[in-house]
Amino acid sequence: ETGVTQSPTHLIKTRGQQVTLRCSSQSGHNTVSWYQQALGQGPQFIFQYYREEENGRGNFPPRFSGLQFPNYSSELNVNALELDDSALYLCASSLSGSGNTIYFGEGSWLTVV
Amino acid sequence: QKEVEQNSGPLSVPEGAIASLNCTYSDRVSQSFFWYRQYSGKSPELIMSIYSNGDKEDGRFTAQLNKASQYVSLLIRDSQPSDSATYLCAVMDSNYQLIWGAGTKLIIKP
Fold first, then answer.
1. pLDDT tens track for B57-74
2. In this model, does residue A5 exceed pLDDT 90?
3. Are B55 and B63 spatial neighbours (Cβ–Cβ below 8 Å)?
4. Where is pLDDT greater, at B15 or B94?
5. Distance from CA of B46 to the nearest CA of A (A)
6. Which residues of A touch B (CB under 8 A)?
7. Which pLDDT band, with edges at 50, 70 and 90, does A100 fall under?
8. For residue B77, how far is the Cα from the chain centroid?
């Protein structure tokens, strides 16, 4: 158990719809990052939040957006879903600034049909 | 572009033997390196972290880091069938973001 929880665990959406994925970070961790892992590939960095501000972003379009709340929980929102958005979405929490270990949740499996 | 390279495998190793997994990275300023294990359908699970040149041992696992040659390796001694999984190498960049390899699939044959 990493103390990072994600919901939902599995969901199916139709192309063009919007989806919100949620993450509760490990207690005391002030940084949350989101990754997309397509089948057979390593995770790809989407963005990172520190104290409710986005402080890093990977090569993902603006229809991928996020929020971090005062309790450090987080949401990932994806608008105008495309078939290629089908993937495992991973949330990870850490304590910022020290290169500390990052802990992952169990992930949310998104299938876009 | 920052890259992390791994042989995709599969790497097949007899039970009880040593499994050797390798990873190279392009960003010379990287300081933190991680090995994760991922079972099919599950999220990555941290096995080892290493920050200094040399070897770091934890049970049956040994991580090796050579910053001059920009490679990281993971040795698994006395391999067990339960070690069969995909092993992901991750490197933390100067912005504390992880850059991942595509993973090596390891198969331990009984």
1. 999 999 999 999 999 999
2. yes
3. yes
4. B15
5. 8
6. 31, 33, 35, 40-45, 48, 55-56, 58, 88, 90, 92, 94, 96-97, 99, 101-107
7. low
8. 14
- Residue B57's contacts (CB-CB under 8 Å, 6 or more residues apart) are none
The Cα–Cα gap between B29 and A10 comes to 38
Report CB contact under 8 Å: A58, B97: yes
| Nearest to A23, CA basis, from A34, A13, A15, A12 | A34
C-alpha span between B16 and B84 (Å, rounded):
13
The residues that bridge with A109 in the sheet, in sequence order, are: A10, A88
Is it true that the peptide bond before A43 is cis, omega within 30 degrees of 0? Answer: no
Which among B3, B7, B37, B38 is positioned nearest to B22, based on CA atoms? B7
Residue B20 Cα, gap to closest chain A Cα (Å): 19
Distance of CA A79 to CAs A14, A112, B50, Å?
Answer: 11, 12, 38
Whole-number Å distance between alpha carbons of A104 and A34 = 9
Q: In chain A, which residue's Cα lies nearest the Cα of B48? A: A101
The Cα–Cα gap between A104 and B11 comes to 25
Q: What is the pLDDT of residues A20-71, one digit of tens each?
A: 999 998 777 888 999 999 988 999 999 999 888 998 899 999 999 999 998 8
